[in-house]
Specification:
- By secondary structure, this protein is mostly helical.
- It folds into two domains: 2-109, no CATH class; 113-229.
- It is 71% helix and 0% strand.
- The protein contains eleven helices and no strands.
- Helix 8 runs antiparallel to helix 11 (189-231).
- This is Retrotransposon Copia-like N-terminal domain-containing protein.
């Protein structure tokens, strides 16, 4: 009895992990649906076409295959419909198979690829590193956006991405950028990350040393003034 309850709880947790579909999260929603159905071994109807209709001469294996397909199709439809807004369910055509149902959902909810490409490209070219934080994470974020563009069939050459990163760096990196432009070697993105991390550490070290020098100089000046005051006017 306990194992049955645990199984039911697991199924419920899996289904509840699927976010409700809205106008902006179709890709995330679909990924969650596919993962949940895959883990529950209910994705057969989404991966394969419906078997040929059964005949009087159909074998036992063919009958079992059809039975399994119909079950996974029915369960897939139930789970997907549960994860879309109730107000939207009535507007969907009564698709009999899960694959067609998912395709129709994509038409209704998938983002306009042109608009998404434009937004991502605009974000990428306008990014600026503020000089605070972690430059490795910053460059990886730019690379992640470039990967999203590649998925939308706008492939940016790695060399172009390297230049976009360099252009986005603040004035503290000017010497670094000049040095790169003077060498013949072209860096990969991984090379750029490695060199940028080293340069950021050097800049931080220089700032620390400058602050220490300024503090020492200021303290020395105060000490001289104090000594002069204590010694009094010359006799």
């Amino acid at each position: 009895m306990e194992s049955v309850n645990n199984s039911a709880a697991t199924i419920s947790a899996n289904i509840n992990s699927i976010p409700v579909l809205n106008g902006t999260n179709f890709k995330e929603w679909k990924e969650n649906v596919m993962i949940v159905l895959g883990c529950m071994d209910l994705d057969l109807a989404l991966r394969t076409e419906k078997p040929a209709p059964l005949k009087d001469t159909s074998t036992l294996a063919e009958k079992r295959e059809m039975e399994r397909w119909e079950r996974t199709n029915r369960m897939s439809l139930m789970i997907m419909k549960r994860a879309i807004p109730e107000s939207f369910r009535g507007t969907m055509s009564d698709e009999a198979d899960a694959k067609s149902f998912l395709a129709e959902l994509k038409k209704c909810f998938a983002k306009n690829e042109k608009a998404e490409t434009s937004t991502l490209l605009s974000t990428l070219v306008s990014m600026k590193y503020k000089g605070k934080g972690n430059i490795r994470e910053y460059i990886l974020e730019m690379s992640h956006i470039a990967s999203k563009l590649s998925a939308l069939k706008l492939i940016l050459p790695e060399e172009l991405l390297v230049y976009l990163v360099l252009i986005s760096l603040p004035s503290q990196f000017n010497q670094f950028k000049v040095s790169y432009n003077c060498i013949k070697e072209k860096w990969s993105l991984n090379d750029l990350i490695s060199h940028c991390v080293q340069e950021e550490e050097r800049i931080k070290q220089d700032k620390t040393e400058s602050a220490h020098l300024a503090s020492t100089s200021k303290g020395s000046k105060k000490r001289k003034i104090k000594e002069a005051a204590n010694s009094g006017p010359p006799r």
